[in-house]
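Margin note: ligand = nicotinamide-adenine-dinucleotide.
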Amino acid sequence: MAKINGIKKKPRTAMVAGGAGFLGSHLCDSLIASGRRVICIDSLLTGSEENLRQFDREPNFDLIVSDVTRPIPPALKADEIYNLACPASPPHYQADPVHTMLTSVLGAHKLLERARLCQARYVQASTSEIYGDPEQHPQREDYCGNVNTTGPRACYDEGKRAAEALCYDFRRAETDVRVARIFNTYGPRMRADDGRIVSNFVTQALSGEPITVYGDGRQTRSFCYVSDMVAGLEALMNVPEAPDTPINLGNPGEFSVGELASKVLEMTGSASTLSYRPLPTDDPRRRKPDVSRAREILGWRPLVDLKEGLAPTIEWFAAQQPAEGPVVQA
Ligand code: NAD
Ligand code: UDP
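Resulting structure:
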């Protein structure tokens, strides 16, 4: 228990749903480092206990292996709830699309109910996929998006949109809700078989396999390093007044898929060739966040540029001996 002016003070408790995943485990690291007690709820669908090994002897950390579509044990109370529970990579969220949709909607509902009961602050990990294949560029929070409701990405995009709608219904009923629209984030602890661009390109380059470029490689994304994203999520939780709209969190540096392939090849010194594959259905053509609201309201901005963030990511993948190779979309 922390002591402040000689008085024992109970640490704040943060509940992190999805805390065994890539982003969630880094968030847990930072929350524990800030003196919080952390309760992680995770079904281990795409996350792993390996990501939480550092807490094996940590008295302030508990992992509850449970699906957020199931009731949350009543004894679990928190001052802060982060909802990151949802597979984020297209091959993973499309593997069981009905469960993805239910995870977003039922999971958000259960965690929002818990926030209401505990009078906790709630941060929702929403996504740039809210904007679909955007007609507005860069994307601002007031853009309502262009999402195909019937395509294979809809389970994720529309699930996250429905979760945002729930968030604002709870907010109108006085729950302290904050929504982060997260843009593509990468870094150590992504799975080699995650299927997203950075993990695929880095593992392919390191093993000398062809780099799988979908479409002509001219589509763009903006890549945020994981430490910046964690700082943004915490800043959103910690800002005293809940912002009245969602907040974009991402790095506005915009790169085409082809440019990312070149950068990874250059940084790994790999001789991998490029292998062009069909563009997946509804793959957004471009994406770049307008982060002025995050700057104004949270005082947050990303600090790590692509080259700086790729270096430790490549180093981390090089140190792994992946049981699984990259997952490539059909
Ligand atoms: P991830 O797949 O590594 O992590 C998701 C975690 O949620 C995993 O640990 C998984 O086991 C858990 N989970 C999934 N379904 C669950 C369920 N029904 N019940 C309990 N736990 C469940 O993905 P990530 O990249 O770390 O993403 C974390 C969150 O951030 C997700 O909600 C995702 O939508 C959001 N997000 C991430 C990105 C990104 O680029 N990383 C971009 C936009 C939004
Ligand atoms: N992509 C690619 N090759 C891969 C994986 C992804 O060309 O092996 C492309 C994909 O088509 C998309 C971009 O990279 O245009 C980002 O894909 P990712 O799955 O990482 O994220 P999302 O599409 O959800 O933004």
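Residues 13-186+224-250+288-303 form a domain with the Rossmann fold fold (CATH 3.40.50.720).
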